[in-house]
Amino acid sequence: CCIAPGFTWKALQTSSREIVLNSNRPTLCLPSKDLCSCSLSLQVKKAFFALVANGVRAAPLWESKKQSFVGMLTITDFINILHRYYKSPMVQIYELEEHKIETWRELYLQETFKPLVNISPDASLFDAVYSLIKNKIHRLPVIDPVSGNALYILTHKRILKFLQLFMSEMPKPAFMKKNLDELGIGTYHNIAFIHPDTPIIKALNIFVERRISALPVVDESGKVVDIYSKFDVINLAAEKTYNNLDITVTQALQHRSQYFEGVVKCSMLETLETIVDRIVKAEVHRLVVVNEADSIVGIISLSDILQALVLTPAGMDQENCID
To answer: What range(s) does the CBS domain occupy (predicted)?
Structure first.
């Protein structure tokens, strides 16, 4: 395995963008001041406004009765509420406006309730990657087993950034020089996509039904011209426009035109090393794999890359990991 289990998170004293060496063991710390937690008694709408105000994508949920964290509130919850209760621009989404988080969890989770997936500060990087991929989650709270405090949240993006920095100081595994076609990393069948004139509510329905986190936007010629991700949906809360989901994707994405630098793409002939460098530098969650005509071939995500870098070399393919 190119990354050996045993790199702990405990001794970190750095910001989320810094790496330090402690006894020659790289460690990464995501400070607790970056955390935003929500009480189950908070109104759903106010909770999502809190995510926007704090510039975060998720928050641990605190239950006073148990005096512990019991779950995570994410943008996926916001999408599920809109998907489930939106009727038309003329009908207010009562469940979003009035429900408390605990009510939403009781109604939505019911039989599908699962305990909060978390990890201790002493857990290895390998354990963190395994837990993220096995549980098909994007955020992993690091919780002190003694105090019960949430210390930081690990994400695919931050782990991969750390790995890239670490690997720059050591010989790279041979498979880093192989291209996507040789490695077969990513998804290349039944790729979901939308068009510029697709209504937002239809995009949200696809997110829920396909359980995916981004949709390439394809024009009439089949060319990839944009991408609509789950993260973009939080802007409906930021701009308080979630009562009209009949607007098009193009209209919804106008807010980001000032800083959006275009879809980050790659080809099947580019090496994994190039792919890792590009996705880390661009600070995105996936690359759209295209052909010479800029048409969709596939999607390669951070999860795909971490599987290839950490778990596969350890003899754990994705099927075994998930099962």
So the answer is: 31-90, 112-172, 185-247, 259-318
- In contact, 69 and 149? CB cutoff 8 Å: no
**Is the dihedral angle over the CA atoms 310, 114, 81, 199 positive or is it negative?**
positive
CA distance linking residue 22 with residue 259, whole number of Å: 37
Whether 296 contacts 284, CB under 8 Å: no
H helices of the chain, in order, are 44-54, 75-85, 94-98, 101-108, 125-134, 156-167, 180-183, 200-210, 230-238, 249-252, 272-282, 302-306, 318-322
At 249, is the pLDDT very low, low, confident or very high (cuts 50, 70, 90)? very high
Quick: pLDDT tens for 117-144: 998 888 878 888 899 999 999 999 988 8
Task: Report how far residue 154's alpha carbon sits from residue 118's, in angstroms, rounded to the nearest whole number.
Answer: 10
Q: Where in the chain is the domain with CATH 3.10.580.10?
A: 20-167, 174-322
Give 240's strand partners.
none
What are the C-alpha distances in Å from 114 to residues 70, 105, 106, 131? 9, 11, 12, 14
List the Cα angle 10/11/15 in 5-degree steps: 95
Residue 178, both tokens: 């192989």
Task: State pTM to two decimals.
Answer: 0.84
Can you tell me which residue has the tokens 């075994």? Answer: 320
Residue 145 CB contacts under 8 Å (≥ 6 apart), including other chains: 120
Q: Would you say residue 275 has pLDDT above 90?
A: yes
DSSP at 3? S
Look at residues 224, 214, 218, 212 and name the one whose alpha carbon lies nearest to residue 198. Answer: 218
Q: Does domain 174-322 have CATH number 3.10.580.10?
A: yes
**CATH fold label, 20-167:** CBS-domain (3.10.580)
Chain segment 28-56, per-residue pLDDT in tens: 444 444 578 899 999 988 998 898 888 88
